[in-house]
Amino acid sequence: MEDIQQVIKESRKIVIKIGSNTLALADGTINRPFMDSFAQQCRNLIDAGKQVCLVSSGAGVAGVSTIHKWARKKDIHYRQALCSIGQVELMDQWRGAFSKQGLHIGQLLLTKEDFSDEHRSLNIRNTLFTLVDEGVIPIVNENDSVCCDEIRIGDNDNLSALTVILWGGDLLILFSDIDGVYDRSPKEDSGAKLIPIVEDIQDLRSKIKIGAANEFGTGGIETKIHAAEKTTVYGIPMILSSGKKENCLKALAEGTQPGTLFLGK
């Protein structure tokens, strides 16, 4: 049976999703040292012959870091305005982090309509291929500043699954604030046990108890299982692991960090 280290070693085209909780410090502002370290780890993967595409949450977090207000406002107009401000800061921080590694970034802001329209999907795919072929890191996010319920994807777990499928990727890695899927919520039950490999998602659903969503992000474990359901149908494995640990990507690739591997069918 394959393990996480082996799957990463065998994968060339990798989509990595960074959750808001991973990018946020305890006060809700953006974690710049993490971004610098993560860019270096991505550089190591690229030097090993991999192609990397990021799906980065954190526009709202970056907005709070920039403007220092509106953090708790629920009004949709304020939330969209905050993301509009934060998207600039988020990309600037990623640009700075990757430039230290001699890498450029390219931004793709997407909505649900982009994936449902044949011509838009083709344009996204072609842009992704062009960027990675030229050694540029694509950074994908939902276009939160213009999205409404009708065109909203809703969470970046889902967005990252759609992205890896459209790109024809080999692997999706989701970094969150937990080590993987547990039989019960580890935040609510200290006796919860990590499930290292999932081959049957429907069987998994019948055996686990899903807890509440996290504080800064838009999705909990349910959205991650949905993402796995999407990718595994296409034979694309997915890994869920914690982005809160030091050198999380490097450790995952070396097999020293725990996680849950959803195997493609």
TrEMBL record:
<feature type="binding site">
    <location>
        <position position="156"/>
    </location>
    <ligand>
        <name>substrate</name>
    </ligand>
</feature>
<keyword id="KW-0418">Kinase</keyword>
<keyword id="KW-0067">ATP-binding</keyword>
<feature type="domain" description="Aspartate/glutamate/uridylate kinase">
    <location>
        <begin position="13"/>
        <end position="239"/>
    </location>
</feature>
<protein>
    <recommendedName>
        <fullName>Glutamate 5-kinase</fullName>
        <ecNumber>2.7.2.11</ecNumber>
    </recommendedName>
</protein>
<dbReference type="InterPro" id="IPR001048">
    <property type="entry name" value="Asp/Glu/Uridylate_kinase"/>
</dbReference>
<comment type="similarity">
    <text>Belongs to the glutamate 5-kinase family.</text>
</comment>
<comment type="pathway">
    <text>Amino-acid biosynthesis; L-proline biosynthesis; L-glutamate 5-semialdehyde from L-glutamate: step 1/2.</text>
</comment>
<feature type="binding site">
    <location>
        <position position="144"/>
    </location>
    <ligand>
        <name>substrate</name>
    </ligand>
</feature>
<dbReference type="GO" id="GO:0005524">
    <property type="term" value="F:ATP binding"/>
</dbReference>
<keyword id="KW-0028">Amino-acid biosynthesis</keyword>
<dbReference type="InterPro" id="IPR011529">
    <property type="entry name" value="Glu_5kinase"/>
</dbReference>
<comment type="function">
    <text>Catalyzes the transfer of a phosphate group to glutamate to form L-glutamate 5-phosphate.</text>
</comment>
<dbReference type="Pfam" id="PF00696">
    <property type="entry name" value="AA_kinase"/>
</dbReference>
<dbReference type="InterPro" id="IPR036393">
    <property type="entry name" value="AceGlu_kinase-like_sf"/>
</dbReference>
<dbReference type="InterPro" id="IPR005715">
    <property type="entry name" value="Glu_5kinase/COase_Synthase"/>
</dbReference>
<dbReference type="InterPro" id="IPR001057">
    <property type="entry name" value="Glu/AcGlu_kinase"/>
</dbReference>
<dbReference type="GO" id="GO:0004349">
    <property type="term" value="F:glutamate 5-kinase activity"/>
</dbReference>
<keyword id="KW-0808">Transferase</keyword>
<feature type="binding site">
    <location>
        <begin position="176"/>
        <end position="177"/>
    </location>
    <ligand>
        <name>ATP</name>
    </ligand>
</feature>
<feature type="binding site">
    <location>
        <begin position="218"/>
        <end position="224"/>
    </location>
    <ligand>
        <name>ATP</name>
    </ligand>
</feature>
<dbReference type="GO" id="GO:0005829">
    <property type="term" value="C:cytosol"/>
</dbReference>
<keyword id="KW-0641">Proline biosynthesis</keyword>
<dbReference type="GO" id="GO:0055129">
    <property type="term" value="P:L-proline biosynthetic process"/>
</dbReference>
<feature type="binding site">
    <location>
        <position position="17"/>
    </location>
    <ligand>
        <name>ATP</name>
    </ligand>
</feature>
<feature type="binding site">
    <location>
        <position position="57"/>
    </location>
    <ligand>
        <name>substrate</name>
    </ligand>
</feature>
<keyword id="KW-0547">Nucleotide-binding</keyword>
<keyword id="KW-0963">Cytoplasm</keyword>
<dbReference type="InterPro" id="IPR041739">
    <property type="entry name" value="G5K_ProB"/>
</dbReference>
